[in-house]
Amino acid sequence: MIPEELLESHNALRKKYVKGDIIFREGDLPSQYFQIILGEVKMCNFNDDGREFTQGFFHPKQSFGEPPLFLNRVYPANAIAVSDCELFVLSKPLFLDLIQKNTSVSLSIIENLAQRLHYKSVMAAEISSQEPEHRLLKLIDYSIKFFKTEKETQGYRIDLTRQQMADLTGLRVETVIRAIKALEKKSEIKIINRKVYR
């Protein structure tokens, strides 16, 4: 996303979080830009029954939580460290100054936000109407494109756990496991050392 040197030259801080830490809460007013150096972060909501709905997972070199930062609106979801993490944290005024002075960074952020919006539109349609196998294939294929996954000798490795697949498709883990087995039988995917390959 934004080159590390550029973030550091604009006084971005490096901040560490441990697994389970809440980085920001739904309803908080944003005041900082976040970009992952190490680790994994998820954005999620909880309904009245405490059930979690995952909006997305974010990995090194990815940013998260920008739309409310631009709109000056509260966060619509929580950001939680999935693993121990190190993040770049840049205050909103310094972030806005950085993107105003760097057109290429602005374009990169626009492209990233457009990708996420497209993903949400595609997945919303899939979740509302399609069978589990179809939902999973759509998620797998989209994650290959979105994360620019490199093809290995066995195919494209999908670095999502069964739980993450369930969270992102609105399915139960048991349903995901059954659907993966069915997709393997149909030769749509391969399972090698418990990893899914497309």
From TrEMBL:
<dbReference type="InterPro" id="IPR050397">
    <property type="entry name" value="Env_Response_Regulators"/>
</dbReference>
<dbReference type="InterPro" id="IPR012318">
    <property type="entry name" value="HTH_CRP"/>
</dbReference>
<feature type="domain" description="Cyclic nucleotide-binding">
    <location>
        <begin position="15"/>
        <end position="116"/>
    </location>
</feature>
<dbReference type="InterPro" id="IPR018490">
    <property type="entry name" value="cNMP-bd_dom_sf"/>
</dbReference>
<keyword id="KW-0805">Transcription regulation</keyword>
<dbReference type="GO" id="GO:0003700">
    <property type="term" value="F:DNA-binding transcription factor activity"/>
</dbReference>
<dbReference type="InterPro" id="IPR000595">
    <property type="entry name" value="cNMP-bd_dom"/>
</dbReference>
<keyword id="KW-0238">DNA-binding</keyword>
<dbReference type="Pfam" id="PF00027">
    <property type="entry name" value="cNMP_binding"/>
</dbReference>
<feature type="domain" description="HTH crp-type">
    <location>
        <begin position="130"/>
        <end position="198"/>
    </location>
</feature>
<dbReference type="GO" id="GO:0005829">
    <property type="term" value="C:cytosol"/>
</dbReference>
<dbReference type="GO" id="GO:0003677">
    <property type="term" value="F:DNA binding"/>
</dbReference>
<dbReference type="Pfam" id="PF13545">
    <property type="entry name" value="HTH_Crp_2"/>
</dbReference>
<dbReference type="InterPro" id="IPR036390">
    <property type="entry name" value="WH_DNA-bd_sf"/>
</dbReference>
<protein>
    <submittedName>
        <fullName>CRP/FNR family transcriptional regulator</fullName>
    </submittedName>
</protein>
<keyword id="KW-0804">Transcription</keyword>
<dbReference type="InterPro" id="IPR014710">
    <property type="entry name" value="RmlC-like_jellyroll"/>
</dbReference>
